[in-house]
Amino acid sequence: MSALAETTTPTRQLGVGEFHTFEASGQRFAYMVPSAAVFAMDDCSVAVVELLKTRPHTPDELLAALAPRFGEQTVKDAVNELNRIRAIGDIAAKAPAPKIIPLKPMPIQTLVVNVTNQCNLSCEYCYEYGEDKIVDTENGSQPKFMSAETARAAVDLALRESNPGKTAHITFFGGETLMNFKVLKSTVAYARETAKALNREVDFSLTTNATLLQPDVIDFLADERIGVTISIDGPQEIQDKFRVFSNGKGSYDIAAPKIKALLARHKSRPIGARVTLTKQTLDVKRIYKHLFEDMGFWEVGFAPVTTAPQRGHALEAGPGYDHLLEQFRALAAEFLEASLQNRHHGFSNVRETLQEIHMGHAKAYPCGAGIGLLGVATDGEVSLCHRFAGSENHRFGSVTEGIDRAKQATFLDEHHIANKTDCATCWARPICGGGCYHEAHTRYGTTTQPNLHYCEWIRGWTHTCLEIYGELAVKNPGFLRQFDGDDDEAPQRH
User: Fold this and answer.
1) Among 278, 281, 300, 361, which one is least packed by beta carbons within 10 Å?
2) pLDDT digit string (tens) for 467-482?
3) Please, what are the domains in the chain?
4) Over the stretch 93-114, which tens digit does the pLDDT of each residue have?
5) What is the dihedral of CA 386, 389, 392, 394, to 10 degrees?
6) SS3 89
7) Please, how many CA atoms are within 13 Å of residue 462, restricted to the half-sphere of its CB?
8) Is the bond preceding residue 309 a cis peptide, omega within 30 degrees?
């Protein structure tokens, strides 16, 4: 029996599988769907695939057509390898991918604790205060600030429900997180003591607008090695467009010197900036340059504003996202140039996607919300994520009652990407997973709806990141080793 016949019966009809091709460094690659694996393709493999795109062929027909050009053994090896990675296969045996639900019970990887729903800024696009806020008003208002008792109960929940023997992760959120600094500080002390008694550790992070970063707060964050993400939109005229106080005054002049003080003092962990992009603030390269080069952030991440489509700052479904993609690609080109020279570049959107590609992440869900990530509202109610804090329809239990595992299982079954018919044929679904639940609820009124308004943007951006991955795989494969978990491989800032 020939090597070809060992994997494919000569009379069976072969067809192409589900994958997306891209080119990088003069070479063709295949991004496999749904396995999310990346394979380099030689000329013979490309020829096999192109031939099968015209119509199904038997293995013998492939040999007859391609052996004169590549040689019989080369064709056999190519067909066998393509069959192994499921780039091609018997058309009669093609079956839909199984619907796999995460193992139960699912440990909490990150608990996002909303220590307050209040903020000292009045950002126009903020989901906490706008008409986009998801909350069930018939249940009454939540307390403005989380109590120390509730915060301690959240710590207990995180330690109890996280993976035993591993570090528990808690992220403090708001509102403006530092408005409840007293409770935040006492909660960290309680968590450290409680975890130590269990021979465990707790890792902390928080998000802040930086306006309340006093010297004692900065010292605490540095001494406790708390990860910090600063919500900031760029240079002064961009920052002050939406991130304003209630009197309309911009926040840049208050935040900027405090950010510089934090960056100078807090060296134990990299400090990142998180930028909200709107229709009026889409100058990505200028924003990045200011935050990374001028201010000194280690990384800068960008997110399109999540808002109802009729609001004035919303990105337009077509032109707005097209312009955003153009901006991202221009900055991504700079990322690639730096990475090929082993210089650190802080465009985190690229880095995070490259890591997902390298790790072979194939998402059945858009993010960890409802799986390994849950949010806690100020009253202790546990929700799908921090953006759904206060919504009874998205409640998963409480810090005292524990997690409603039955409701969690129902949610995961209903929201699996296999149920999103618009996603079933999309090659980018291993990276996208259908898109943010909060975005879907805001745009379409339900978390089960895929975010169809930015599908082309996601596909375009994923394709760009695949091209960057391919270039690095060929020209600087050592760069990608940092995603294996070896921090020593990460580029250093120069």
Assistant:
1) 361
2) 999 999 999 999 999 9
3) 3-93 (3.90.930), 110-357+374-409 (3.20.20.70)
4) 766 667 888 877 889 999 999 9
5) -10
6) strand
7) 24
8) no
